[in-house]
Amino acid sequence: MNHTSRALLLILLASACLRTQAAEPPYDGSWESLQKMPVPAWFDDGKIGIFIHWGPYSVIGYRKGGRGYSEHVPKMFYADSAHYYPWMQERWGATPPEFGYKDVIPEFKAESWDPDAWAKLFADVGFRYCVMTAEHHDGWANWDSDLTPWNAMDKGPQRDLVGDLGKALKKHGLKYAPSYHRERHDTFFAKRLYVVNAEPQDHIAEEIRRVPEAASLYGPFGLTKEFVDDYVARWKEIQTKYQPDFLWMDDIPIWTRDGNQVLAGKAKPEVQYFYDQCRLMITDFMNDGAARGAEVYVNNKGGNRNWPDGVGCLEKDNLKLKVIGPKWESCTTFGTSFGYLEGDRYKSIEDVIHEMVEVISRNGNFLVNIGPKADGTIPEPQMERLMAMKEWLKINGEAIYGTRYWKVSEQKNAHLAFTTKGKTLYAIRLREPTAAFTIEDRAHWLASGVKSVRLLGHPYDAAVDWSIGPDGLNIKPPRNPGKSKYAWVFEIVTDRDQHVPNVIEADASKALSGTKEVDLDGHDFGPIRNIAGSSVVIETAEKADGFRRLMPRKQSFAVTANQRTNNDPIASLADGQLVRGIGPVFSNGVRNGAYKMDLGAVRPVSAIISWSHNWKGIRGFQKVVLYGSDAAKDPGWDLKSYVLLGAIDTAGKPRANFTAASLRADDGKSLGKFRWIVWAVSPAVRNGIAENTAFQELAVEAGEASK
Predict the structure, then answer these.
(1) Mean confidence (pLDDT) of the chain
(2) How many CA atoms lie within 13 A of 41 on its CB side?
């Protein structure tokens, strides 16, 4: 072999070696390897995404009590048949097993859906990525699947919803994540949730007996190797057909239920197999993205995280971290439901804008959800909020996109939140800037370091008067607050980088501490709003007979309690007598200590009232949440099965010997028809100490029993 041939051979060998090294996948299948995944620039810079819950459950548009996750109603048909079967009979003229969830699917037609119009709308609003349910817990596939006949191409719309939307989003420059929620399907239609061994609800079993094809919609039941393998295969089909940018998975409750603590190394064999296959599925997705040159990412859902910390971004429903955390995302609802819910109660536009700002200022991404109707149209209240976001972002988007957090996320006394971009600090005022305010921190601000201050959206792009004082940077807003609404952005250009990387609370458990618990069964426990058409009336009196509007009277209804109470007997709560004493007392802090009144039959309720005595200067306040139920039998003490009516809190009201408080329907209306009324006690805090809670009287104003 001559020198030339030898040199050529060495070059070819070196080239082959380089190709082999380049082909080596970046993730080796271990959690430790996956913990090294970077946050993609498109995700960290994009900040705002849109979530879409859409499927056959969108046909239903109803949930008991009018609040909570309507996409969970398919299982509730069977789990709460006493309530839902009469409703189904009225809606469809039939109930299970003759007519079940499988029979709702033909009404999911998407006949008015235009994927390009959706994608254009999302781009116009300012979303940078889109997450749409490929499959929820119900077993229905929104894509053209070869693995199940219960898919959108073969039934219902007879269109590839996932694929068509993906093409439109790509055309408009948005990243895409078909979300995957199948992890709970094996018990969704079962008698028990989140267990390894599961049996179908009786009427589900009968539906399957009558229509064998329904087995592949409602089942399989229980966590088996076959279920897990199919779980992975369905995602692999999505990954191969649509090449998503993000693997979005819901909470996986079995990790911490039925005797398992997977992340702590305690798991039944079936659960361990599921966990291991999820790890390999994530690895395959990440390596597939790397092979095609795509920056892809994963979420880590739940307060009990799915994976070890560092594998993807933290995420929970309607999550609001109180600190600047490791990269996180809040999947946020406009109302109380993710799926379409007719008459849902929506957050105000101001609340939506403020929540978006607060999430982003704390290193989060804002993934806000819409629940379209079955025909593919977006409900008007949701469109109204999307348009408000569009207008706000058009003016203030530079304080959102591509930004990073500051050294603090907020300054409460001036109603400010902060973001940064290079040498620019954005101070986002959450109240209209009608007066001067100060961004505090004496050490941070030097007169020579501030180059300019302006208010985004000001009609003349006018400079803002500012000065450095002993307490910090003083800003005097212009008289005209500009075009913005709900939140106003002051751009402060300085001579140094404003981002402070080391202020993150890196410990995910500490960062999540104190945040709202996610209810896996889809109940809504958000901020309590009193039921529509009602108000709270509070009256005080120095003497027991001093009330003029809320006068106690004897009740013929029986009162019980869910825990032992001290002092006066429970029966005294309905005798119409206010005496100087304590009354029945719950040891406080027992958060859901509750009183229940049985009205004997379903009646229209116009008011719920309670009285308390200011005994020795304490225990005069009332702090309770009110619930109602129309169940024929005692529904027990699980408040998830009740309708939330509202709350009473007399703290901060004038103190007197006696206080009465009532949740009352507007004139000529009622709070609803109920048999059971519950007063659920919340701790009343005084001087930092939770007090015991006591009442002298409980009463309900109710009409004649329903016939």
Answers:
(1) 90
(2) 1
